Amino acid sequence: MSGYDNNPFAEPAGENPFNDPSVTQVTNQPSLGVDQYNPFPAQTPQGPAPRTTTPSAAPSQPAVLQPSTEPSPQATAAAAQANLLRQQDELEKKAADLDRRERELQSRGPTGKQNNWPPLPKSFPIKPCFYQDFSEEIPVEYRRVCKMMYYLWMFGSVTLFLNLLSCSAHFFVDTTSGIDLGLSILWFVLFTPCSFLCWYRPVYKAFRTDSSFSFFFFFFVFFCQVVIFVIQAVGIPGWGNSGWIAAFTNSHNKAVLAIMITVAILFTICALLSVVLLKMVHSLYRRTGASFQKAQQEISTGVFTSKTFQTAASSAATSALQQNN
Question: Domain limits of the chain?
């Protein structure tokens, strides 16, 4: 019955974990504060402690400011002048570059390509004036006829040169034929470039751009060229042509006669070829759908879009307004 006298809520003796001797020894030691805590406890030195030397402080010196040197007016002016000279050199280089590009653009044709006709050497002072490339600019269906027109122009130019030689030979035999010699020189100098510009280049442009105006201009000028070839083949005396009549009436030398007959044959061939090619070009012209109305439209469009016409119109309008005011 003695067991009922014990307190059931009392801690049993011998069962408290904190009554362990190792725990009570630690808890009973005085606690050290944070300020007194040394994480590196002192150890017994095995030998003499190393001798430490503190570096001596360097003697302080006052800061010395370097005196500021300002450039003299002469140095400033010299620097400004050098800068101006440098800028002037740069501007001159840019101007030279622009001039070179402008010359290159001027040497190019309307298509923006480098001119290649006439084929002159690069060292020649005169540069090519036109761009010509049959395989690139002329359609296949017009290329053959266009080349034939070019060969006709070259054949006619050679014939005019031979006509000049024939008239020269005739003048050496008969000095009274000086008029024929002078006119033969004039025909060669005049007709060679004019035929190229007045009927060959228009037909080339007509085949290239299908221009009705170029076709009409070519037909008008080339018809006159056919008439000139016929007159040259006939050879009216005193007209500067070694044609058939001039060959049989004005020469008594067999060598000169043979030369003049050869030139008369060449003029006849030129006349026949020109008639044939005129018909061929006309047949191609009818296939292209060109007409007189289209030619009028091209003329009006070209006139109104021309810078010369626009400048003249603006100046006329300005002068009219000034007069009214």
Answer: 138-289
